[in-house]
Amino acid sequence: MGMCVDPGAFRWCQALSRSQSLTTASTARTTVSASTAATSGGTTTRGTTTPTVPTVSSHSQQADYRHVSSFHHAKVRRSLNTTIFIKKKKAATVTAAAATATATTTAAETTQTETADSKSKSVSNNFSNQYSNNNSNYSRTNGRSTYNTSISCRQTTNSRYGSSSSICSSSNIERALAVRRRNLSLSTNKLSEQYSCSAAALNWLISSFVLLLCITLCTSSISPPAPQDAVHITAILGESVVFNCHVEFPGDHPVPYVLQWEKKVSETGQEIPIYIWYESYPTHSGEGYEGRVSRVSPDSSFGAASLNLTNIRESDQGWYECKVVFLNRPPKQHKNGTWFHLDVHAPPRFSVTPEDIIYVNLGDSIILNCQADGTPTPEILWYKDANPVDPSSTVGIFNDGTELRISTIRHEDIGDYTCIARNGEGQVSHTARVIIAGGAVIMVPPTNQTKLEGEKVQFTCEAKAMPGNVTVRWFREGSPVREVAALETRVTIRKDGSLIINPVSADDSGMYTCEVSNGIGEPQSASAFLNIEYPAKVTFTPTIQYLPFRLAGVVQCYIKANPPLQYVTWTKDKRLLEPYQTKDIVIMNNGSLLFTRVNQNHQGRYTCTPYNAQGTQGSSGHMEVLVRKPPAFTIEPDPLYQRKVGESVEMHCDAQEAEGTTKPTITWQRRDGQPLQKNRVRIMNGNITIDNLRRSDFGYYQCVASNEVATIVSATQLVIEGTQPHAPYNLSGTATEFSVTLSWMPGYSGGPDYKQDYTIWYREAGVSDWSTIPVTPSGSTQVTINRLSPGTTYEFQVIGKNALGDGMMSKVITIRTLDVQKPKKTSTTTAAPNEKEFKHASDDLGPKPGQPRNVSVLEIPNGFLISWQVPLERPHLVQFYTIKYRTDAQWKTLNRGQIRPEETSYLVKNLVGGRTYYFRVLANSLKSYETSEEIKFPVPARVKHKAITAGVVGGILFFIVAIILSICAVKICNKRKRRKQEKG
Predict the structure, then answer these.
(1) What is the pLDDT averaged over residues 327-348?
(2) SS3 per residue for 566-597
């Protein structure tokens, strides 16, 4: 852009409108003023009056030029300091508009030219007076201030830049000066007469033209046409770009200029400055462009007005305009300025991505959201396990590909889903893994540890889960460690689940359990034992201990040791005691002294010192050992009491203390440890009375008399007659693959007149119903239960029965049958057909019973017995049983007729020896059936050998019989022959 650029069209129109009200007299005065101003003609640029100095050769004119140039430098300094250049694009250039109007007159008519000059001068002066604060500059010549106005301007339209501008022509200025010199000699009256003749017509013509010009300029300033020959540049986000803009000086003669770069805001159409430069002054960078815009080096191949934009952002995209403003002369041609359009391309980058791992349950619905930014707008693609996602009834892609939705999670939907965003500048991807959620699993369980007292111990407990929000809890002997008072200040649970105890003490020994959970399924747990070792120590020292005279007695040494106690040293009366050298003193395993027969020599002061592998923590204190006589029974209970149910029994007992000791305390207790029934039992003065006797009162009772010296016991037996048998005891058993053999000790039969028989109760562990088997022969205390499933856990009980009824049940014992030993596979072994080859009944056929259980095949003398148990579920639906078998892939029916529902076995007489059979038992309802598990039974090869042997033996016998018959036939023939010969 050159001089007289960016006139404020609106303000200019206002000034021109006011200029039409001038009278003929004022016009004449304006003409004179214009003639005066012609000697220092000027041009208005951006609302400021800038001198236009024509080319001169005289010395005086060059001096005027230098003076004017210095003025313009001062003007630019003021303009930059007050930021007039930042935003004055809408200011009008009044002088340019006036010059355009003057250009319509005929240059040959001197009077009309002067009139146009006067008219232009009048308009310019009015506008300058109105906006003198912002838009007027004063030129001082010979000590006087005069307005610098345009003498003659030519209105042009720059099609390249899409805007209208007024360019003040030097030739017009020279021509106007020549006219003024010729007309200076004319008188004022003559000039007025000439002007008055055509003033009205000329004023109307000028007014009409100016009005049309105002409309055009206003329209242009409001909506400038789009650039027709702009330079389009494409850049990548973050890179740099150079806008190449050339400066063409007028006449190729460098003159001062201001460089201004502006960007057009697309939303408002406003142009904002992003870079302003003037030599020797600080540059101005627009907001957001600080540090990113600079002039290109003068030594480069780009134009002098080129701009370098670095670190390009997406917001930099848009229209840019290069403007060059000359300060002291106009260019002859409009080539200083260029439009640029910057396209910013950016590779894709994700703004929203799904989580890396997504935990789901089957049947859930999920949405994977993947959004990306970039220029051009990226395309979103979805892949599952490296294959494009195939939309289906449950899987769909929505919202321009940004959402992948799965309405019902199935097994085949589990996997890795990759979202790819791509455009012409590149692509990015993100993978999300969809995993079925699962409970926590302990990967590294705690291990048993042994520590010395005072050390630090750490138990690890690493677990994995999906999702991985694992919670770890620690227990000691079933109690949370944080609730154990002794551990409260010494225990720490780390974030990784580890348990730390620092320091450990002797009492910390025990079982420690970690429990992990993530809220899904049952928690898992693992345990480890902590063993704390310490030197052997005495935990308690009694001041006095008593030994019973002439009885066995013990002097206790209360010891605690880990590792176990190795030995204890004793002193008596401060002398080392050698128990091994004394026949009536023995050191017990717990370190205590056992006196087999106490005498008075054993009395004294004792100490003990325990030792183990870690050493000792010291000796006990002094213990005073006194020898005293023990208490003695004065009344003892009878050896046997026999009563019937409902009766009462009273058993007597009393004891007396020795001299110097306290009276003994008498108590009663059952020898089997069961508690006494307090509501039926009374103890008074050492005697015990039991009312309303029951069968459970049967047993052995003890009268216990004790004082500080000794404890003595007297026992008796109470027998309750006429009751059902007591519970068998000491029940034990041995197992094979298909059977269990039980044995037991009989309980009390109920009296000498009663004989008892036994019944076995058994069931598979976890099953509610019991099965029963009577024991034969009668009175036997051993039995074998057959037809059990291999590798299965069973529960057993034994109950006795006499003439009065069933007795008490024994305790339950658990026995597991042995697993079937699988034959070793050889190269000729044929694999069993797949389980799926058996056709199961469809659920559409109606209700069906449960599975037959515990199918087994047992070889017996007359064949093979196939046995099973009735179903646990819906057994009432069973109408009959069917047995299927196969030796190859094809299943066949074994039984010819239907097996009744009350029968649970079937005898097969002929099975081929050396072959392997597979059997299934089918429980049939009216329309459906349910099958048992498949069992395998290899027939021993000796069965085949028996058949062969029988055939061979039969053949031999037949051959012998044939020989005998042949011999007999020969003898008969010979006899007949001899008879014929004798007759003949």
Answers:
(1) 73
(2) CEEEEEECCEEECHHHCCCEEECCCCCEEECC
